[in-house]
Design brief:
The protein is of the alpha/beta class. It is built from 16 helices and ten strands. The chain has two domains: 176 residues, Periplasmic binding protein-like II (D-Maltodextrin-Binding Protein, domain 2); 95 residues, Osmoprotection protein (prox), domain 2 (D-Maltodextrin-Binding Protein, domain 2). Helix content is 46%, strand content 14%.
Protein backbone atom coordinates (compact mmCIF):
# COMPACT_ATOMS: atom_id res chain seq x y z
CA UNK A 1 0.00 0.00 0.00
CA UNK A 2 1.13 3.54 -0.71
CA UNK A 3 1.39 5.49 2.51
CA UNK A 4 -0.47 8.71 3.16
CA UNK A 5 1.40 11.69 1.74
CA UNK A 6 2.02 14.27 4.41
CA UNK A 7 1.12 17.88 3.84
CA UNK A 8 4.76 18.88 3.67
CA UNK A 9 5.33 16.48 0.81
CA UNK A 10 2.46 18.03 -1.10
CA UNK A 11 4.48 21.19 -1.72
CA UNK A 12 7.05 19.09 -3.50
CA UNK A 13 4.38 17.55 -5.72
CA UNK A 14 5.55 18.99 -9.01
CA UNK A 15 9.08 17.71 -8.42
CA UNK A 16 7.64 14.29 -7.60
CA UNK A 17 5.69 14.25 -10.87
CA UNK A 18 8.78 15.35 -12.79
CA UNK A 19 10.77 12.46 -11.35
CA UNK A 20 8.05 9.99 -12.28
CA UNK A 21 7.77 11.36 -15.80
CA UNK A 22 11.53 11.04 -16.20
CA UNK A 23 11.30 7.45 -15.02
CA UNK A 24 8.65 6.65 -17.62
CA UNK A 25 10.60 8.29 -20.42
CA UNK A 26 13.77 6.50 -19.40
CA UNK A 27 12.14 3.21 -20.36
CA UNK A 28 12.72 4.08 -24.01
CA UNK A 29 16.16 2.52 -24.10
CA UNK A 30 14.80 -0.91 -23.22
CA UNK A 31 11.35 -0.74 -24.83
CA UNK A 32 10.54 -3.53 -27.32
CA UNK A 33 9.66 -2.91 -30.95
CA UNK A 34 5.97 -2.29 -31.48
CA UNK A 35 5.90 -4.05 -34.85
CA UNK A 36 4.43 -7.23 -33.37
CA UNK A 37 2.84 -5.98 -30.15
CA UNK A 38 0.97 -3.23 -28.40
CA UNK A 39 1.67 -1.77 -24.98
CA UNK A 40 -1.38 -1.16 -22.80
CA UNK A 41 -1.12 0.79 -19.57
CA UNK A 42 -3.42 1.80 -16.75
CA UNK A 43 -3.45 4.32 -13.94
CA UNK A 44 -2.93 3.35 -10.32
CA UNK A 45 -6.47 2.35 -9.33
CA UNK A 46 -8.64 -0.72 -9.80
CA UNK A 47 -11.03 0.53 -12.46
CA UNK A 48 -8.24 1.63 -14.77
CA UNK A 49 -6.52 -1.70 -14.25
CA UNK A 50 -9.72 -3.60 -15.16
CA UNK A 51 -10.24 -1.56 -18.33
CA UNK A 52 -6.64 -2.12 -19.36
CA UNK A 53 -7.00 -5.87 -18.81
CA UNK A 54 -10.27 -6.00 -20.77
CA UNK A 55 -8.60 -4.37 -23.79
CA UNK A 56 -5.52 -6.56 -23.45
CA UNK A 57 -7.48 -9.82 -23.42
CA UNK A 58 -9.67 -8.78 -26.34
CA UNK A 59 -6.66 -7.87 -28.50
CA UNK A 60 -4.89 -11.09 -27.58
CA UNK A 61 -7.99 -13.15 -28.39
CA UNK A 62 -8.80 -11.64 -31.77
CA UNK A 63 -5.47 -10.57 -33.29
CA UNK A 64 -2.02 -12.13 -33.64
CA UNK A 65 -0.55 -9.23 -31.68
CA UNK A 66 1.21 -9.72 -28.37
CA UNK A 67 0.18 -7.39 -25.56
CA UNK A 68 2.64 -5.95 -23.09
CA UNK A 69 0.85 -4.88 -19.92
CA UNK A 70 2.40 -1.87 -18.23
CA UNK A 71 -0.20 -1.35 -15.55
CA UNK A 72 -0.55 0.72 -12.41
CA UNK A 73 1.37 3.81 -13.49
CA UNK A 74 1.15 6.70 -11.06
CA UNK A 75 -1.69 8.63 -12.68
CA UNK A 76 -2.97 10.78 -15.53
CA UNK A 77 0.16 12.79 -16.17
CA UNK A 78 2.45 9.77 -16.19
CA UNK A 79 0.23 7.84 -18.60
CA UNK A 80 -0.09 10.89 -20.82
CA UNK A 81 3.66 11.49 -20.98
CA UNK A 82 4.24 7.81 -21.65
CA UNK A 83 1.88 7.69 -24.62
CA UNK A 84 3.28 10.93 -26.06
CA UNK A 85 6.77 9.43 -25.83
CA UNK A 86 5.67 6.27 -27.63
CA UNK A 87 6.24 4.02 -24.63
CA UNK A 88 2.52 3.31 -24.40
CA UNK A 89 0.09 2.55 -27.23
CA UNK A 90 -3.24 2.55 -25.39
CA UNK A 91 -4.53 3.45 -21.95
CA UNK A 92 -8.00 4.15 -20.46
CA UNK A 93 -8.81 7.80 -19.77
CA UNK A 94 -11.82 9.95 -18.88
CA UNK A 95 -13.11 12.73 -21.10
CA UNK A 96 -13.48 15.29 -18.31
CA UNK A 97 -9.94 14.56 -17.14
CA UNK A 98 -8.56 14.93 -20.65
CA UNK A 99 -10.44 18.19 -21.15
CA UNK A 100 -9.38 19.90 -17.94
CA UNK A 101 -6.16 18.25 -16.75
CA UNK A 102 -4.49 17.64 -20.13
CA UNK A 103 -5.97 20.22 -22.50
CA UNK A 104 -6.41 22.84 -19.71
CA UNK A 105 -9.82 23.83 -21.00
CA UNK A 106 -12.85 24.88 -19.02
CA UNK A 107 -15.32 22.16 -18.00
CA UNK A 108 -18.63 21.83 -19.77
CA UNK A 109 -21.59 19.58 -19.06
CA UNK A 110 -22.58 18.08 -22.42
CA UNK A 111 -21.12 14.56 -22.74
CA UNK A 112 -21.10 14.48 -26.55
CA UNK A 113 -19.52 17.91 -26.88
CA UNK A 114 -16.81 17.06 -24.37
CA UNK A 115 -16.01 13.80 -26.18
CA UNK A 116 -15.85 15.47 -29.59
CA UNK A 117 -13.74 18.37 -28.34
CA UNK A 118 -11.21 16.09 -26.66
CA UNK A 119 -11.02 13.78 -29.68
CA UNK A 120 -10.51 16.70 -32.06
CA UNK A 121 -7.86 18.41 -29.92
CA UNK A 122 -5.99 15.16 -29.28
CA UNK A 123 -5.85 14.46 -33.01
CA UNK A 124 -4.83 17.99 -34.03
CA UNK A 125 -2.31 18.69 -31.29
CA UNK A 126 -1.03 15.42 -29.85
CA UNK A 127 -1.03 12.68 -32.47
CA UNK A 128 -3.54 10.74 -30.35
CA UNK A 129 -7.16 9.79 -30.76
CA UNK A 130 -10.04 8.41 -28.71
CA UNK A 131 -11.76 5.11 -29.22
CA UNK A 132 -15.52 4.87 -28.63
CA UNK A 133 -16.67 5.43 -25.05
CA UNK A 134 -17.01 2.28 -22.92
CA UNK A 135 -20.49 3.35 -21.84
CA UNK A 136 -20.22 4.60 -18.26
CA UNK A 137 -19.59 7.99 -16.70
CA UNK A 138 -17.28 7.80 -13.70
CA UNK A 139 -17.51 11.25 -12.20
CA UNK A 140 -15.96 12.24 -8.89
CA UNK A 141 -18.03 11.20 -5.89
CA UNK A 142 -17.92 13.19 -2.67
CA UNK A 143 -18.58 10.41 -0.19
CA UNK A 144 -19.56 10.38 3.47
CA UNK A 145 -20.61 7.50 5.69
CA UNK A 146 -24.16 6.35 5.06
CA UNK A 147 -25.09 6.54 8.72
CA UNK A 148 -23.94 10.16 8.82
CA UNK A 149 -25.99 11.06 5.74
CA UNK A 150 -29.11 9.50 7.27
CA UNK A 151 -28.59 11.06 10.69
CA UNK A 152 -28.09 14.56 9.29
CA UNK A 153 -30.58 14.14 6.41
CA UNK A 154 -27.92 15.09 3.85
CA UNK A 155 -28.33 14.57 0.15
CA UNK A 156 -26.36 17.32 -1.59
CA UNK A 157 -22.97 18.98 -1.37
CA UNK A 158 -24.67 22.31 -0.71
CA UNK A 159 -26.36 20.85 2.37
CA UNK A 160 -23.10 19.25 3.52
CA UNK A 161 -21.19 22.55 3.37
CA UNK A 162 -22.67 23.59 6.72
CA UNK A 163 -21.22 20.50 8.43
CA UNK A 164 -17.86 20.45 6.64
CA UNK A 165 -16.05 22.62 9.27
CA UNK A 166 -16.40 19.67 11.68
CA UNK A 167 -15.14 17.12 9.16
CA UNK A 168 -11.74 15.81 8.14
CA UNK A 169 -11.41 15.34 4.39
CA UNK A 170 -9.29 12.92 2.39
CA UNK A 171 -8.35 13.30 -1.27
CA UNK A 172 -6.01 11.72 -3.79
CA UNK A 173 -2.87 13.59 -4.76
CA UNK A 174 -4.08 14.17 -8.32
CA UNK A 175 -7.42 15.59 -7.12
CA UNK A 176 -5.52 18.22 -5.15
CA UNK A 177 -3.50 19.21 -8.21
CA UNK A 178 -5.91 19.15 -11.12
CA UNK A 179 -7.96 22.18 -12.27
CA UNK A 180 -11.28 20.33 -11.88
CA UNK A 181 -10.34 19.19 -8.39
CA UNK A 182 -10.01 20.52 -4.87
CA UNK A 183 -9.56 24.27 -5.33
CA UNK A 184 -12.50 24.68 -7.66
CA UNK A 185 -14.70 22.40 -5.58
CA UNK A 186 -14.21 24.27 -2.31
CA UNK A 187 -14.74 27.58 -4.11
CA UNK A 188 -17.94 26.36 -5.79
CA UNK A 189 -19.47 25.15 -2.52
CA UNK A 190 -17.76 27.35 0.07
CA UNK A 191 -16.28 24.30 1.79
CA UNK A 192 -14.07 24.59 4.87
CA UNK A 193 -12.77 21.59 6.81
CA UNK A 194 -11.59 21.02 10.37
CA UNK A 195 -8.00 20.59 9.20
CA UNK A 196 -5.96 20.48 6.02
CA UNK A 197 -7.11 17.59 3.80
CA UNK A 198 -5.25 14.32 4.14
CA UNK A 199 -3.67 13.30 0.84
CA UNK A 200 -3.95 9.57 0.37
CA UNK A 201 -3.60 6.85 -2.22
CA UNK A 202 -6.92 6.35 -4.00
CA UNK A 203 -7.10 2.75 -2.86
CA UNK A 204 -7.07 3.80 0.80
CA UNK A 205 -9.78 6.46 0.79
CA UNK A 206 -12.93 4.32 1.08
CA UNK A 207 -11.51 2.22 3.92
CA UNK A 208 -10.25 5.32 5.73
CA UNK A 209 -13.74 6.84 5.49
CA UNK A 210 -15.41 3.65 6.69
CA UNK A 211 -13.01 3.39 9.65
CA UNK A 212 -13.58 6.99 10.74
CA UNK A 213 -10.09 8.26 9.92
CA UNK A 214 -11.70 10.87 7.65
CA UNK A 215 -15.28 12.11 7.26
CA UNK A 216 -15.45 13.00 3.56
CA UNK A 217 -13.56 11.50 0.62
CA UNK A 218 -13.27 12.22 -3.09
CA UNK A 219 -13.93 8.83 -4.64
CA UNK A 220 -15.55 7.75 -7.88
CA UNK A 221 -19.19 6.95 -8.58
CA UNK A 222 -18.38 3.47 -9.88
CA UNK A 223 -16.37 2.49 -6.80
CA UNK A 224 -17.50 -0.99 -5.83
CA UNK A 225 -16.96 -0.30 -2.13
CA UNK A 226 -19.64 2.43 -1.98
CA UNK A 227 -22.54 0.00 -1.45
CA UNK A 228 -20.36 -2.60 0.28
CA UNK A 229 -19.25 -0.15 3.00
CA UNK A 230 -22.55 1.74 3.17
CA UNK A 231 -21.07 4.99 1.90
CA UNK A 232 -23.24 7.81 0.56
CA UNK A 233 -22.47 9.96 -2.51
CA UNK A 234 -23.47 13.60 -2.07
CA UNK A 235 -25.18 15.06 -5.11
CA UNK A 236 -23.13 17.62 -7.05
CA UNK A 237 -26.16 19.94 -7.11
CA UNK A 238 -24.20 22.90 -8.52
CA UNK A 239 -22.91 20.73 -11.39
CA UNK A 240 -19.28 21.51 -10.71
CA UNK A 241 -17.84 18.37 -12.29
CA UNK A 242 -17.82 17.79 -16.07
CA UNK A 243 -18.74 14.37 -17.55
CA UNK A 244 -16.06 11.71 -17.20
CA UNK A 245 -16.84 9.11 -19.84
CA UNK A 246 -14.29 6.31 -19.89
CA UNK A 247 -12.54 6.05 -23.26
CA UNK A 248 -9.44 4.39 -24.68
CA UNK A 249 -6.71 6.84 -25.69
CA UNK A 250 -4.67 5.49 -28.61
CA UNK A 251 -1.62 6.63 -30.56
CA UNK A 252 -2.59 7.30 -34.17
CA UNK A 253 0.70 5.69 -35.21
CA UNK A 254 -0.42 2.50 -33.46
CA UNK A 255 -3.67 2.43 -35.44
CA UNK A 256 -1.78 3.03 -38.68
CA UNK A 257 0.58 0.16 -37.92
CA UNK A 258 -2.12 -2.13 -36.50
CA UNK A 259 -5.48 -1.09 -38.01
CA UNK A 260 -7.15 -4.18 -36.54
CA UNK A 261 -6.87 -2.58 -33.10
CA UNK A 262 -9.49 0.01 -34.05
CA UNK A 263 -12.01 -2.75 -34.70
CA UNK A 264 -11.26 -4.37 -31.35
CA UNK A 265 -11.76 -1.12 -29.43
CA UNK A 266 -15.00 -0.48 -31.31
CA UNK A 267 -16.37 -3.70 -29.81
CA UNK A 268 -16.37 -2.03 -26.39
CA UNK A 269 -18.59 0.89 -27.46
CA UNK A 270 -21.36 1.29 -24.89
CA UNK A 271 -20.74 -2.16 -23.45
CA UNK A 272 -20.21 -1.22 -19.77
CA UNK A 273 -22.91 0.53 -17.73
CA UNK A 274 -22.29 2.47 -14.53
CA UNK A 275 -23.68 -0.41 -12.49
CA UNK A 276 -21.65 -3.03 -14.35
CA UNK A 277 -18.44 -1.08 -13.77
CA UNK A 278 -19.26 -0.81 -10.09
CA UNK A 279 -19.78 -4.57 -9.94
CA UNK A 280 -16.47 -5.22 -11.68
CA UNK A 281 -14.68 -2.92 -9.24
CA UNK A 282 -16.29 -4.67 -6.28
CA UNK A 283 -15.27 -8.10 -7.58
CA UNK A 284 -11.62 -6.98 -7.39
CA UNK A 285 -11.68 -4.61 -4.39
CA UNK A 286 -14.39 -6.21 -2.27
CA UNK A 287 -14.11 -9.89 -3.13
CA UNK A 288 -10.34 -9.77 -3.81
CA UNK A 289 -10.65 -11.72 -7.03
CA UNK A 290 -7.95 -11.81 -9.68
CA UNK A 291 -8.41 -9.02 -12.22
CA UNK A 292 -7.69 -11.33 -15.17
CA UNK A 293 -10.42 -13.73 -14.09
CA UNK A 294 -12.91 -10.90 -13.55
CA UNK A 295 -12.14 -9.41 -16.97
CA UNK A 296 -12.40 -12.81 -18.69
CA UNK A 297 -15.81 -13.52 -17.14
CA UNK A 298 -17.14 -10.15 -18.22
CA UNK A 299 -15.92 -10.55 -21.82
CA UNK A 300 -17.54 -13.97 -22.05
CA UNK A 301 -20.80 -12.66 -20.58
CA UNK A 302 -20.82 -9.94 -23.24
CA UNK A 303 -19.93 -12.53 -25.91
CA UNK A 304 -16.72 -10.70 -26.74
CA UNK A 305 -14.47 -13.74 -26.20
Amino acid sequence: MIATVRAGCFRAGHSFVSVLVAAVLSLSSCAPSHSDRVVISSKNFTESLILGELMAQEIEAHTPLKVERRFYLAGTYICHQGILAGRIDIYPEYTGTALTAILKQKPESDRTQVYERVKSEYEKRLGLTLGPAFGFNDTFAMEIRGEEARRLHLKTLSQAAGYAPRWRAGFGYEFMERPDGYKGLVAAYGLHFAEAPRIMDLGLLARALDEGQIDLAAGNTTDGLIPALDLFVLEDDRHYFPPYEAVPVVRRQTLEQHPEVAGILAEFAGKISDQEMQQLNYAVDGEHRDVKEVAREFLRRKQLL
